[in-house]
# Entry
Amino acid sequence: MISTVPDSGLTGSVDIPEPEEPKQDNDLRSRWARLRQSVSAALRGLPRVVRLSWEAGPWLTTWLALATVISGLSPAATAYMAKLLLDSVTHAVLVHTQHLPDQAVLGPFTLDTVQMIIAVAVLQLLLTAVTTVMNTVSQVSQGLLQDRVSHTIQLKVMDHASKLDLAFFEDSASYDLLRQAQQEAPSRPMSMMNGAFGLIRTLITFSSMIALLLTISPLLAAVAVLAPIPAFIAESRYGLRTYRFALWTSPIRRRMDYLGRLVTTDEDAKEVKLFGLGPYFVDRFRQLGKVYFARQRKLSTERTLRSTGWGMLTTLTGSLTYLYIALEAVYGRLTLGDLLLFTQATSSVQGSVSALFSGATGMYENNLYLDNLYKLLATEPTITRPERPRELPKPVRGHVVFEHVSFSYQGSERPALSDVSFEIRPGETAAVVGRNGAGKSTLFKLLCRLYDPTGGRILLDGVDLRELDPDDLRLHISAMFQDYVTYQATAAENIGLGDLGRVEDRPRVESAAAAGGADELLTGLSRGYDTPLGRWFNEGANLSGGEWQKVVLSRAFMRDAPLLVLDEPTSALDAQAEYDLFARLRRLSHGRTTLYISHRFSTVRQADRILFLQDGQLVESGTHAELMRVDGQYAHLFTLQAAAYLDAPAAKEA
Ligand SMILES: Nc1ncnc2c1ncn2[C@@H]1O[C@H](COP(=O)(O)OP(=O)(O)OP(=O)(O)O)[C@@H](O)[C@H]1O
# Structure
């Protein structure tokens, strides 16, 4: 759907034009065709909900199905029992006033009239008892199943999402798909279960009632089906409009949610306070809310007025047919019981028609959700294990070769890397430098095989990365990304997660912390390595940006990987901590190939090899001394930074 909210909703008009009603014929036949369409779409959705429900709990589903069938049949059975009772009473009155033979027939049995009344009353009692029990069974199993279905869906989504490529998460359309599946998973199953089983129940009630009426009088059956037509017209018009309204307002609601988040979460609170944005955001929220509620009010008023009008018409039709039936009874063509049965049947059929509509509309909506869910589950990762993966020669030495590697992000015209070739020999330390957006992080992501190159190939110890099992490859790489994760967990866990198998190996965690420079910091915390970091689950410690970076660096040292990849590992560290880290890195990088990105030339110059990227191309490569001699881009940037410290003329020029 095209968003009608201009821009972000943070500025500009909040008054969104009403969505255009799609042109459609409103004669009865077109309505009927539309009804058939939405009912068949809803029916198509039923098996999927039932399948999910079966997966979540086969026994509960069986009980629910049984209860649904029985409670679907119960209105017809109850009406029939009421008719039987009334007819038996009328018959008994007749027998006693006119002294006729005291006999009545109930199925294969011949009883006297009082026995007959008692038998019917007992049957009625049994029926009510069964219906009550089944209603309870239905409610309980539905309640239990909802949570399980929700859990099953969440599990499916999480399991699948954990296997998808990074590209999937970075694509906004697919990300929306995932977010929707995730967000709606807790609430949607409830309406799916209610909708699906309610629809089945209504269908059973509707058909059993019609069948019952047919046995008495086909004419009555026809009248009962025709009487709710006005209600049908009103519902068919507004059911879908309500759905469209929900769709149309979703961009407004999303923006309202966003505004709500901006003023209620700790992440954004600092800036919002400093720039005094709170009242402004609250006001935008209020304005968007006003538009939303005005539209909603208009729709519901219109709907209520119209459906009351059509409802009156339905009542009138009902009263006229009732009068006709009453007269038929007076002339003895129908019994009093038939009259009662008809009254109950018409109101039940009418109720069923309305329920069918709302059920079909609800299912239509649920179907859209399910479509998205299944679309998400059908998304296949592209970076997968080859059929016959090659093994890396043991021991893995960390020899990295890029051969004419090019890469473009999906939907982006400009390549992020083009024709990049270089070699890093085992044990070497390489620094990747370049201006913002030059392609440095992209190069790292390709090396970790989070993406595949669009051209050329990347070799590790002579093997093309695409021939390896990605999981096996990643076991040999330890990395720290620019946007690293700060887990809501203890300090030890935050480090240990770098090597899941050894997360509880405390000596190992401590030596990784020493390598990352976090040991002193962590032993100083109130509960040492067991101090929770972050405040989601426990009262934990709040670390500064640089302190977090040390913890995350330590995580990268958990793994004894031959390849270490660090994307701006020192961006938040103070000068002393940075110096210490590189001193340690020289020690620690023995026998392991290290690649790091840095904008600080003081650290870059220490690397064995420097790769200078510009607009996705490798323009210079060599040692610091070599590149300074070349006096190219690297030398220019280096001098610029150095001059800034020394207050030399180059800084003034810049
Ligand atoms: N997920 C993405 N989807 C589309 N384009 C991207 C994506 N990530 C990066 N880019 C683009 O690719 C180019 C290279 O980005 P990259 O992150 O590799 O740069 P960088 O050299 O690491 O920059 P910085 O120094 O700012 O971290 C940039 O033009 C960027 O806009």
Q: What stands out?
A: The mean pLDDT is 82.
